[in-house]
Amino acid sequence: MPLRISIVEDDPAVRKSLAGIIEDSPDFECLGAYGSAEEALCEVPQRLPDVLLMDIGLPGRSGIECTAALKAAHPGLQVLILTTYDESKSIFEALRAGASGYLLKRSRPEELLKAVEEVHAGGAPMSPSIARLVVTHFRQFNQPANEVENLTQRELEVLQHLAKGLLYKEVAESLGIGIGTVRTHVEAIYRKLHVQTRTEAVLKLLSK
Q1: Exposure string (b/e) for 24-43, b if CB count within 10 Å is 16 or more?
Q2: What is the pTM of this model?
Q3: pLDDT at 85
Q4: How far apart are CA 100 and CA 119, in angstroms?
């Protein structure tokens, strides 16, 4: 079954281009393409996609506000941010709103489709330049130095594997533990690091 993708993008040409990239692949299906946050907030819940591509610079309510609202109502919805901006503050806010990944619009079509697959599989794709900006942004704040140090050795190993982009199943196989145990460790990691997403947890490890 193809992955179901929806798009929120105010530029008609870009919206059409993104829809075309998705529809040209037999592994993907475009459920809908919306030009504003208001339209997306009304339509997306009617047909929830596997992954939602979200632009930040929308007219009216921003993509960050739209992401936060949709994630609050549908926590399992995976959101991949696509934007022309590489400004760390907006990136950080999008991740805090619940986005699972962040790519620049200039990314190649194959990079986009790979990122969509990674998000759906539980990964957290991020353009290299974006990752550097986010880590720099984290370092501007006085995060408690011992947060990562509070993790047990096993929790640290799980987090290090997540930082490599491994899926829960792959982490379980690598460490010789059950996938349920991996999920338990991840919950503990989130609690100790005071984060809500995999991306935030990994970034705290990288900015340690």
Answers
A1: eeeebbbbbbbbbbebbbee
A2: 0.67
A3: 66
A4: 6
- How far out from the chain centre does Cα 60 lie? 23
Whether residue 100 contacts residue 121, with contact meaning beta carbons closer than 8 Å, is answered with: no
Structural domains in the chain plus CATH codes: 3-138 (3.40.50.2300), 142-206 (1.10.10.10)
Scan for tokens 């490599």, then name that residue: 164
* pLDDT higher than threshold 60 for residue 160: yes
Query: 52 or 57, which is more confident?
Result: 52
| AA letter at 196 | Q
Cβ-count burial 91-102 (b if 16+ within 10 Å, e if not):
bbbbbbbbbbbb
Say if residue 109's pLDDT is above 80.
Answer: yes
Asked if the model's pLDDT at residue 51 lies above 60, the reply is yes
